[in-house]
Amino acid sequence: MPRPIFDTLATADELRPYLDMQAYARDTSRTKTRHRIEFKPLPHRLARRAIEERAPCARCGTLMHPIRARKPPPPALLPDAINGTVGGIYYSPTCPQHTSLRCSRGSAAANDYTLMQAEYATQDQEAT
Ligand SMILES: [Zn+2]
Questions:
Q1: Model's pTM, two decimal places?
Q2: Inter-residue contact 113 to 35 (CB < 8 Å)
């Protein structure tokens, strides 16, 4: 049984409660989905450790950072913010788009997303 890249992270156990995934009854996107998994606001120190972690891209194997902060970085990630929580963190199993579109939009990314959904998605109560 293949595992998502997420499970290989040293911070995976700590990050898991903050995963923000919902299973939708149907995919609402008309274009090819960019698979991106969000986190609820998480402790600043955990966010910083997670962002520093590296794992092999699900498609090409290049070491990359699966846990990323949106740009510009949220204020809470700036050096003087020590306590509190931070949002704007997400997970991606492949190279960033600016590195390789083939990775981020390829089937390996979609497969990892499916694995994440199977393991961690909560049911969407609003599904119609
Ligand atoms: Zn890659």
A1: 0.81
A2: yes
Nearest to 74 by CA among 41, 97, 36: 41
pLDDT-flagged residues of the chain (< 70): 23-35, 72-83, 123-128
Q: In this predicted model, what pLDDT tens digit does every residue of 52-61 receive, in sequence order?
A: 999 999 999 9
The SS3 assignment for 89 reads strand
| Predicted local confidence at residue 23, as pLDDT | 65
Cα gap 66→91, rounded to integer Å: 5
- Residues near ion ligand 1 (Cβ under 5 Å): 57, 59-60, 62, 95, 103
Using alpha carbons, list the distances in angstroms from residue 110 to 42, 48, 60, 99: 25, 26, 14, 18
Q: How far is ligand 1, taken at its centre, from the CA of residue 94, in Å?
A: 5
Point out which residues pair with 122 in neighbouring strands: 22
How many angstroms separate the Cα of 106 from the Cα of each of 55, 83, 122?
A: 17, 37, 25
